Amino acid sequence: MPTQKTTPEKIIKQSIQVFRTNGYYRTTMNDLAKATGLTKGIFYHHFENKEEVMKKSLQATSLWFEKKIFSLAYNETLPKKERLIQMAETLFAAFTENAGGCFFANTILETAHVEDTFLEEINHFFELWENALLHIYKEKYNEKELKEVVQQTIADIEGTIIVMQLKKQPLLLKNALNRAIEKL
Prior knowledge:
Blueprint: H1 8-22, H2 29-36, H3 40-46, H4 50-68, H5 80-97, H6 103-111, H7 119-137, H8 143-167, H9 170-182
């Protein structure tokens, strides 16, 4: 079989789906190699271990959210409500079109009680999200209320994602995102 050329970026993209489906602990390097069509040896040529692949997967996902969703909050050419609506629509697609809900929440729920290996990457994601909402809501609320409203909004959405997965009802997430819009 000819050697397939690939890049670390392509490997990470395929690995994200495996982690989203199986979780961190139930994913093996064999699973990752198989999903990418590589031998384990070639996979290890690109990445030292599963932990490195997971960190890079979380970083790549965070970067995607930053570019595709959170950046919308700073588009001053649109009214704040329109920015929030666009963010909500893109978040809805991101959390419903791929199996597994929120990659970051799933990872923290799975690993936090065992290790803190991925806290930096997960905190970064939630800080980006929080900052985007702080920017949008900043004129509506005073400083004390602002932080609380933003944290409640993210908690509402994340909690709803869990219930949505349980009940298999995407409308629940749509409602949570609408509540976020109504806070503006």
